[in-house]
Design a protein that fits this description.
The chain folds into two domains: 2-124 and 293-297, Probable inorganic polyphosphate/atp-NAD kinase, domain 1 (Rossmann fold, 3-Layer(aba) Sandwich); 134-289, Tumour Suppressor Smad4 (Sandwich), CATH 2.60.200.40. Helices cover 25% and strands 39% of the residues. It is built from seven helices and twelve strands. Strands 1, 2, 3, 4, 5, 6, 7, 8, 9, 10, 11 and 12 form a twelve-stranded mixed sheet that branches. β5 and β6 form a beta hairpin. α2 (45-54) packs parallel to α3 (68-78) and α5 crosses α6 (158-170). It starts with a strand and ends with a strand.
Length: 301
Amino acid sequence: MNHVFILNPAAGKKQSALRLIPDIESFFAKHPDDFVIHVTSAPNDAARLASQHAAKGEPVRLYACGGDGTLMEVLNGSFGYKNVEIGCIPCGSANDYIKSFEEGLPFKSVRAQVNGTARVVDTIDCNGYKSLNICCMGMDADVADKMIYFKHFPFVTGPMAYNLSVLYMFFHHIGRQLHVSIETENGMVDYQGDYILALAASGQYYGGGYRGAPTAINDDGLLDFVLIETIRRNKILKFLKMYREGKHLDLPIVHTFKGKSMIVNSPKPVTVCVDGECFSKNEIVFKVNPKSVSFVIPQDR
């Protein structure tokens, strides 16, 4: 097995990914095996490097050492290659995907990652982009788009940037006219109306710890779809507290489904966020890719 560490020094604060280099070199000095360290220097570097190593055809474990965006790049660069396993060593400001796994797993340990075992999990296809975690649209995607701006401020962490973005959006236009078709376990359902949020989820957490899809299971072959009707501004902050804690599913404005696909159409382009990658379209298609990626679970001892 080849071990490829892809470090994103721009993730998180103080180039935390680079501090892994001594740990990696020390581990393999004591446990000889094939390994290489890459440091990214531009957007999409992680995807390019992942693709290059995956295309060799040899068994390889790709470690995304950064945030959720780095993990998303490694996934998209290597997707479809059966010789690839993907690990995540969290160095970003949020690293939300791994929060859906058992609490206390040593994801930051090089030893635990190298000695870990791979679990086959589902992914999401969103207009060609692949995601392990959550794809969102509406206010949340607008917030994620603005979050990139706030993260450049000194001392602003991932959760803080998210909260600042929410505050910014609070004073701007919220709600989108959407027509939504969902392929559920029990057949097709259609919704049309004004929605503040819509998401497709394989993981449970995003946005720096918001538990938007608390019942999502990342290896059940289904996605959790959540639609939230537009609410009055004076109720948003109270709602967001419940939303962060994952206590929103029983509210009458929230509609949840488990299924295989969701098609969303809007008369105006809507911003969509796929693990930090944002784009705008009139039609968005979310589909589950069941059991499509081998994800490394670190050794828990």
